[in-house]
Amino acid sequence: MKAMQIRVASYNIRKCIGLDRRRDPGRVLDVINGVEADVIAVQEADKRLGARPAALPAAMIATETDFAPVEVDRRGASLGFHGNAVLVRKGMRVTGVTRIELPGTEPRGALSVEIDGALRLVALHLGLLRRDRRRQLGAIAAQLDPALPTVILGDFNEWSPRRGLEPLQTDFAVHAPGRSFHAARPVAALDRVALSTDLQLRDAGVVQDRKARIASDHLPIWADIDAA
């Protein structure tokens, strides 16, 4: 793999409903633009009921950002898969997309995206029960080709700094950039990034500006990654 430096980010946008109870996609896009990432994993990108239309409209992404959503399903109105969407900088080459169905008490899924054939990013939103989260991480790890450097990121829904992450501990280093939930008063590092052993974390953090503190109940996280 050629040398690469990339900024990835993750943001649970809560269907664009802010802490003021207003659904405001434009405000969410302002926060996303401010992260200055190359690739962003978005959770709760679609509405919950019916055909699950996008809460974050693709037309707004096209006109108000420098991102493009990774195409997941041509047939539906959804932006992502089980609410997981991936936004990439315009001009970045997506060379593969895989939808991963996850086991558990409630329907969950993950989205695996290959970028330029050199890096895999897995966007996820894990379940509310720890036993489900362990099974879900195990299912993801079992599908990954170890030859391709991999970033797994999203809302892990895990309050413990160690427990529940066991399926990743052999082949990945899991990082919590900081407390990202609840946005009004952050007390838990629910949003995390896991890097395969051929990737290095250069820097990471949590976006805590005024707009981010009201746009969703989660704050976005980011991570700068080096790959040799």
Write the layout of secondary structure elements.
Blueprint: E1 4-12, H1 25-35, E2 39-43, H2 58-64, E3 67-69, E4 85-89, E5 94-102, E6 108-115, E7 119-125, H3 130-143, E8 150-155, E9 172-175, E10 191-196, E11 199-206, H4 212-215, E12 221-227
Parallel strand pairs: 1-2, 7-8
Antiparallel strand pairs: 1-12, 2-4, 3-4, 5-6, 6-7, 8-10, 9-10, 11-12
Main sheet?
6 strands, mixed
CATH topology (level 3) name = Deoxyribonuclease I, Chain A
User: pLDDT under 50 segments (min length 5)?
Assistant: none
**How many structurally independent domains?**
1
Please provide a written account of the structure.
It is a single chain. Helix content is 16%, strand content 34%. The chain is an alpha+beta fold and 228 residues long. It has one domain: Endonuclease/exonuclease/phosphatase (Deoxyribonuclease I, Chain A). The strands form 2 sheets. It has a 6-stranded mixed sheet, with helices on one face. The radius of gyration is 16 Å and the shape is globular. The mean pLDDT is 94.
Key traits:
4 helices, six-stranded mixed β-sheet, 228 residues, 12 strands, Deoxyribonuclease I, Chain A, alpha+beta
